[in-house]
């Protein structure tokens, strides 16, 4: 079994890189809302630091997320508070 490679420093670097403008989380959230139609609940596997979930919540979705990395989830908690149910 592969050990979790994401420690606190790696998770902070990941978050800094993906928030630098390389990804269109708003566009992805718009597409997901369109695909879901009227459905409002979403389970995100590999929620990471919660960047996509943040945009989905802004669109009114009820989001739950799983991640295997405690350090990624710690950043997600700081970003999302109690707006999303998070599980390790």
- Please identify the structural class as seen in this structure: alpha/beta
- Report the β-strand fraction as a percent range: 5-15%
Low-confidence stretches: none
The largest pleated sheet is described as:
3 strands, parallel
Strands side by side in the biggest sheet: 1-2-3
Q: Overall mean pLDDT score?
A: 91
Number of helices: 4
Straight-line distance between termini? 17 Å
Radius of gyration (Å)? 13 Å
The SSE order reads HHEHEHE
Question: Care to describe what's here?
Answer:
By secondary structure, the chain is of the alpha/beta class. The chain has helices spanning 8-18, 25-36, 51-58, 70-80, and strands at residues 41-45, 62-66, 85-87. It has a three-stranded parallel β-sheet with strand order 1-2-3, covered by helices on one side. Strand 1 (41-45), helix 3 (51-58) and strand 2 form a beta-alpha-beta unit. Helix 2 packs across helix 3 (51-58). The chain is globular and about 40 Å long. The two termini are 17 Å apart. 27% of the residues are buried.
In brief, what are we looking at here?
The chain is 48% helix and 15% strand.
Describe the secondary structure blueprint for this structure:
Elements: H1 8-18, H2 25-36, E1 41-45, H3 51-58, E2 62-66, H4 70-80, E3 85-87
Parallel strand pairs: 1-2, 2-3
Helix pairs in contact: 2-3
Q: Main traits of this protein?
A:
88 residues, alpha/beta, three-stranded parallel β-sheet, 4 helices
């Amino acid at each position: 079994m592969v050990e979790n490679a994401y420690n606190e420093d790696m998770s902070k670097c990941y978050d800094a890189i993906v928030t630098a403008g390389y990804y269109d989380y708003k566009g992805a959230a718009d597409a997901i809302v369109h695909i879901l139609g009227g459905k409002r609940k979403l389970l995100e596997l590999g929620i990471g630091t919660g960047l996509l979930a943040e945009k989905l919540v802004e669109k009114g979705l009820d989001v739950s997320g799983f991640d295997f990395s405690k350090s990624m989830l710690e950043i997600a908690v700081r970003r999302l508070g109690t707006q999303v149910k998070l599980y390790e």
